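Can anyone check this?
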Amino acid sequence: MNLKQVLLNCLIGAALVAAVASAASSLSPPSFVRAGTLRSCLDPSFAPMEFYAQAGDPQPVGVDVDLTRALAQLWGVQMQLMPVEFTGMLPALQANRCDAVISAVLLKPERAAVLAAVPYLATYVVIIGRADSRLQVANELDLAGLTISAESGTSYAHLLEQINQRIVAAGRRPILIQTYPKDSDAIQQLLVGRAAGVVSQDTEVAHRNALGAQFKILFRLPVRDEYAIYLRPNAADQASVAAAIAQLRSNGTLRQIVERWRLPLHTLDLDSR
């Protein structure tokens, strides 16, 4: 984790420790659910976090859907899921078209600079390949010359560009970076052989392989991230959501959700910074 991310985590952590302590006893609902509904923006294309189990299903399912439902139940309100493409979720939140973004969005400094953020699960960035891939990736220089796909609007393309700078500096051919509107589109490029790998999270690989998919992690980048709930800036609302997440963690609900979707248990560990 780089220094900027460490400082960001420290700032958010310091702000939330006191806030959670004051809000946890009453678990007061945040102001944005006073009308009786929690409106959550999500991009249902990233299994197991949020996705449609079958084409044509009216509602998505997944980790974040279960988490949103648990928060709504804790606050005694209804849940309303609002599907939006990844690049449109945070703008929709800022435009008041939803109350929160609960959609496996990574905690990043540039996002937390303009929005309130509450971390809830840990995750690692990985490059995955097909199980029959013969690629041997011992370090990032071994990615030189490969075609790697990623979802547009995420931090993945920027991460690959940073790796490319080091690859080129070492005198090797850069990665050919291909971006697609949805994570499922990027995965499809791997399946049909147009990409050697896909940048994703370890949470996705664990879920897909549990369902019988044949993927393997080619390389785990030394990047530990956290999924965060994003809100419009409001200290009291941030404290309320943080207290609710703490409650779901302490009563075992969050662990049950993680186990139901077969995520690695280290996703629950937000303290290994």
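Reply from J.R.: I decoded it. Residues 1-26 have pLDDT under 50 and may be disordered.
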